[in-house]
Amino acid sequence: MSAITVTTDVEVCNMALDMLKEATITALNENRAAARWMNRNFIPTRNLVLTSHVWKFAMLRAELTEDPTKPAFEWAHRYLKPADCFRVLPLRVGGTINGRTIPHQVEGDFILTSATSPIKIRYISEVTNIAAWPAPFVWAVAARLAAGIAHTLTGKMSMVEISLAQFREALALAASLDSAEGTHAQQYATAYDDARYYTRDGLREVL
């Protein structure tokens, strides 16, 4: 969906303050308690919201080749995550949404797996351009900010609960819109895929 007309961190913060019926701010470095709190917590809150849903606007794809250093044990290969990778989505054959799952584990900056190189991944990237944020994401960030600061500003746990309800509603809207936008191609595993990942009895263990 198209982005709404919110383009700055201050506008997002003011949406949060509006939810709480509190006075808005003009800058994050303003000498007010609300501005100081927003300045400290805006980026961590944005990052928290990014990990709370598979946001399509932040989704990217990549094909990775294996790192020369192999894991010490358990997995046969490791792959360096892209520099802008915020969250790796489940590895699947061919990188498709409905492909068969590839066993793996994410540790630090690496994806560990026994799948041979190259592997195709989908991941959530860090999107810092607020103008590119879709409406549900803006709403979700604002609501989560409101929930974080609500008790400090209002002293009312009810305002925290109302803000969290707004946050959950934004996530639900995003999920509903995602299900209505686009279709997934049917995934058929090839003989090559089966040889790389599977044996007759199930998942292949590559040693």
Structure notes:
There is one protein chain. With 207 residues, this protein is α+β, with helices and mostly antiparallel strands. It folds into two domains: 9-53 and 134-180, no CATH class; 57-126, no CATH class. The protein contains five helices and eight strands; from the N terminus they run ααββββββαααββ. The strands form three sheets. The chain has a three-stranded antiparallel beta sheet, with no helix packed on it. A three-stranded antiparallel beta sheet has the order 2-5-4, with no helix packed on it. The chain has a two-stranded antiparallel ribbon with strand order 7-8. A hairpin with a 2-residue loop joins strand 4 (104-107) and strand 5 (110-113). Helix 1 packs across helix 3. The relative contact order is 0.19.
Kindly state the mean pLDDT as a whole number? 85
Radius of gyration, rounded?
Answer: 21 Å
The low-confidence runs, each spanning 5 or more residues with pLDDT under 50, are: 184-207
For the largest beta-sheet, the strand count, sense and barrel status come to: 3 strands, antiparallel
User: Distance between termini?
Assistant: 45 Å
Number of helices: 5
